[in-house]
Amino acid sequence: MADSEKESIESASSEISREFRSLIDSQDLDSIKQSQNLILGRLQDSNAVLSHFNEYSENCFMEVHADFAKNTRLLRSMKLDLDYIFLKLRGLKNKIAATYPDACPDNSAIEALDRRPDLELPKE
């Protein structure tokens, strides 16, 4: 590039810069900066509140987690016990029905009275 071209580009650049500066009001820039600082402060406050809430939630979860796990184990063992009890009861009913056929109603009456789910084969 020639020196004259560089000078013309520089003068054009400085002229465009002056025009842009004249388009933008410094008070508008100050109000935009104030708004941005206000938004930044609010976002930082919100972030602090959310961090505190997350810590609180984590502490509450840690307190409840042990009880929840213990109760889950208790419910599972109770279900296994009940499955075993119902299995034994069905076996006893079948033995009684085989030994004393007149003492028990027919199978259709038993099915009508017993509407519990079939627990003989526990699902794991």
UniProtKB/TrEMBL annotation:
Recorded hits in PANTHER family, A to Z, give:
KXDL MOTIF-CONTAINING PROTEIN 1
The record's listing under Pfam families reads: KxDL
Transmembrane stretches, by residue range? none
Q: Which organism is it from?
A: Salvia divinorum
Q: What is this protein called?
A: KxDL motif-containing protein 1-like
Q: Return the similarity comment.
A: Belongs to the KXD1 family.
Q: Which residues form the KxDL domain?
A: 20-103
